[in-house]
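---------- Forwarded message ----------

FYI, see the ABC transporter ATP-binding protein record below. Original note from H. follows.
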Amino acid sequence: MAHDISVRGEEGPVYGPLDVEIPGTGLTVLSGRGGGGRTALALTISGRMKPRTGTLEVLGETKPSVIRKRVAIAGVDDIDLLDRDVRIRVILTEHRAWSTPWIMWAPRADQDYYESVCRPVFGERDLPPLDAYVSQISGLDRLLIRIALALRPANGAEIGMLVMDDLEQVHEFDDRLILVTVLSRLAENIPVVVNAVNRLPDEFLPDYTLIELFTDASHLQPSHAGSDLDRIHRIAKEAEL
């Protein structure tokens, strides 16, 4: 639960003040215009950014340092972007090393370790080849690996919530629907919060919570949009997601 939270940057307000109440279960979509405000809100909810004003409580915790240990975040390039020029095996080996006590030697990641980390997220979807370069796999698979790593932090902390930024970073329509299905499945076990410009189609995913927010306080909006907004909104609604 967040009350009157806001973040301000060097160029002025980023978002807020906002009141947000996220359910403790299921999938929640934070819908709003694209921009840095939505990412800043995701960072705030996950304990990675301290709000300038207001109060924040996540999973019963109020200190950002404690929230950060219990809330996983994925899809924020500054935090979890995968290097395109390395193999998946290298990423998993580094994860294994960081997850191993420093006095012990960590063997190179094998298929069993790969499965243990990524299978809970990928479900029935095929895992990319372990020796494939990140640049060779789809944007969806890259994001699924990022989610899997976020849910298995190297410090072994128990994750109680997942926050994912920018649903639309998966550009392909079909892949985005697959991603939504994965997030919905994960939300059966822990609350999942995802940032999205557009709401999800009810006929595809009827059971989720939609919270529409204005998080673009730093973006100037024209008084005249230069088009028939009612018509644009009708077309956009028909093409949502």
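H. also flagged this: The two ends are 27 Å apart (CA to CA).
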